[in-house]
Amino acid sequence: xxxxxxxxxxxxxxxxxxxxxxxxxxxxxxxxxxxxxxxxxxxxxxxxxxxxxxxxxxxxxxxxxxxxxxxxxxxxxxxxxxxxxxxxxxxxxxxxxxxxxxxxxxxxxxxxxxxxxxxxxxxxxxxxxxxxxxxxxxxxxxxxxxxxxxxxxxxxxxxxxxxxxxxxxxxxxxxxxxxxxxxxxxxxxxxxxxxxxxxxxxxxxxxxxxxxxxxxxxxxxxxxxxxxxxxxxxxxxxxxxxxxxxxxxxxxxxxxxxxxxxxxxxxxxxxxxxxxxxxxxxxxxxxxxxxxxxxxxxxxxxxxxxxxxxxxxxxxxxxxxxxxxxxxxxxxxxxxxxxxxxxxxxxxxxxxxxxxxxxxxxxxxxxxxxxxxxxxxxxxxxxxxxxxxxxxxxxxxxxxxxxxxxxxxxxxxxxxxxxxxxxxxxxxxxxxxxxxxxxxxxxxxxxxxxxxxxxxxxxxxxxxxxxxxxxxxxxxxxxxxxxxxxxxxxxxxxxxxxxxxxxxxxxxxxxxxxxxxxxxxxxxxxxxxxxxxxxxxxxxxxxxxxxxxxxxxxxxxxxxxxxxxxxxxxxxxxxxxxxxxxxxxxxxxxxxxxxxxxxxxxxxxxxxxxxxxxxxxxxxxxxxxxxxxxxxxxxxxxxxxxxxxxxxxxxxxxxxx
Length: 657
What we know:
Largest sheet: 6 strands, mixed
Helix content: 10-25%
Distance between the termini: 62 Å
Strand content: 5-15%
Shape: elongated
Oligomer: single chain
């Protein structure tokens, strides 16, 4: 607290008490007061000696001083001998003590409260200390700013270096890809040349063989007696026809080029837990059906570790380890469906001497051969095959698969063909002729490790079903589908579902005029940033639920061409598109939609959305709008007045509650 004594022209003295601190200072400024009194300071004790108006006990705080001043005024005014006329004015921040002298001569007034304290000095010291601390703080801040700027410069340099390395790495990858492609093309050309040479050699060998057979037939004279005996034996016991003389059997096989060396070698791995159990090496998928009706103990010979045994589809091993199975056929098979299906102990199959020229059905041929590691199909002749349904389904351990020799011009069904080949890393199908294929449902679904997939040669003009075609191809980063003709496709459900690493997708060539189902089409494409669907014709689509579900990085979708007149379900359509900022749905017609639950769920960055034209007459007040705008309250403040009739709590409902 600060007290100040002032004087006006009428020699009225005022003591102003400003409530600033607990210390009080009287300053005396008047021409009528001696200068020595102005300069001199008096303590509270001095004042008590000169004036007997104060209490004997020393005041400790401002309240006590104030009370003593009041007492002083009262005593001055009551005293007849007093030369002072005193008044006291007070407000919240100031006390004014007015002293009006009756005589011009005032001996002196000097007051100093509390003990002697040099306030100015204290304030100066405090100010100096403050300035010093401030200077130190400013210096420290400047040092930190310098360090920050240095670090920032280092970070910028590292970023520039990283960008430079990225660009260099990209260029290196592009150059390597070019070199790799050139090498592949050279190898392909070499293979083609070798195939042509081999075909010529094979044709020459066939001609030589036929000439030799004809020569044998012409030169061989079988006596009438032997022929009669043979005919009698056949008529008496037809089941013993292949148990006749070894020379005769050898003659029959040797004179037929399609039966000679018609065999398969199989390598099986037996573990400790497999001992004395029935271990199948043929057809173990469906106990109710026998898929290899053509094979029997007459036309098929079985060898296990070079020991001939009676033909069966299985054997009971007595010890663990590797077993070599050889199957020799003296017939030409036409149906290989489910041939090795469910044979989980097979690790390798060799078909180098197996004749497939007459086979028309390879449905599920290697289905669920979960331990199969190596498969050489280079000798396969598939020109007559029409069905390759789930041919390699669940071949979990297959890493590479060379199908360059496959002739698929007559195949119509490729459903599940490579489904769940979880360790398959690359697949070159550039030689595939798919002009007659009508169904590619789940063809590559679940190929978790597939990195490279070349479908540039695919002709999909007759395909009507592509649902789940690439679903679960987690490692695919790019996919060239520019050659795809989708004019007859009706189902694209989950076509790219869970392609989590897919970064870019050009679907500008897609013709979707006949598609009716787009459920979960891009659901789970976590890394997809932009998607241009402006070429899409969705007039016949009735289901768009979960179409862009969990597309976390997607920030731009062009849906300007969408016709949703026939759509009835939009549940989860944009659910968890957390980076989506703007969304233009002006082309949407929702008059037939019955379910929009979780449609914009957790679209937390969505700022611009006009739903004023949405027709919601068919929506249910609970299930139809549940969680529709959860965690995207910004939308609620925009033009969606036509949703005011619905319960806001239900529209903001969390899936987890």
